[in-house]
Amino acid sequence: MCDDELFLTAILNCSRSELLLHPVSLTDEQTKRLDEMRQRLAAGEPVQYICGFTEFIGHRIEVGPGVLIPRPETEVLVDAVIKDLKAIVRQDLLVLDIGTGSGCIPISLAKEFKLSRMTGVDMSAEALAFARRNARLNGVADRIDFIQKDIFWFLDETDQRFDAVISNPPYIPTAILPSLPPDVRCEPALALDGGPDGLHFYRFIIPAARRLLKPGGLLALEFGDGQRKELENLFVITGGWDKISIIKDNAGKSRIALAQKQDQ
Ligand SMILES: C[S@@+](CC[C@H](N)C(=O)[O-])C[C@H]1O[C@@H](n2cnc3c(N)ncnc32)[C@H](O)[C@@H]1O
Fold this sequence. Notes:
Elements: H1 3-12, H2 16-21, H3 28-42, H4 47-51, E1 53-56, E2 59-62, H5 72-86, E3 94-98, H6 104-112, E4 117-122, H7 125-137, E5 144-148, H8 151-157, E6 162-167, H9 182-185, H10 200-212, E7 213-222, H11 228-238, E8 241-248, E9 254-261
Helix pairs in contact: 1-3, 5-6, 10-11
S-adenosylmethionine binds near residues 101 and 105.
């Protein structure tokens, strides 16, 4: 979809096919809005912020300044998790999403597993406001607890045990942030900055997940292009993992790690 088509679907609150099948002439007010949207785009703002929403695995997710825009790689992560969890016959799964942002991950999983309960943790109040609204819009708010906490505290404190722990943590090395494209720099640094080598969060999440998962539970992580080796090393150093597998994104790059907590 080109940017103008996307803007028109936002202004007219319709789908692309409705737009193409029933062309309409815009009111003066709507034309003014379209011009403003084009100006924001030219100034480097992401299309999704301008429209106020994006699609994630077919679900509408509202976004705006203060929250990361869900990416296609994360759809690959969620697809892999759904496939893996479907092998478990139980439906009443307990899932933890670390750094939940817009809530795209727990919302998609709650829609797939109708008896499941999700916990989404994030320290950003702005991100969680989007996450809570998105959960309501998608009809799953009653099965997701969104918690505003620094994960470094939350993971140490919680005594809950989960069937799956999922995270798409910040993984961009700090020094790279200033050279990111302007539209990406509009997104919160908190959602992008993975520390000096981009691996800061994994060093904490992988051992913490060993403690928080039930035996046989699933850990699923998205990681950056080129971080595969270091990530596999972290699993080996932590120990206690079975069936470590790496999945490629749609561009053929290794981007998702799955691992199962050993039974004992
Ligand atoms: C890469 S974004 C992922 C957002 C969402 N899960 C997704 O995939 O689109 C990482 C998220 O982690 C959150 N975050 C960063 N540092 C955190 C911390 N120390 N404690 C809690 N959340 C944190 C950010 O606010 C951001 O929403």
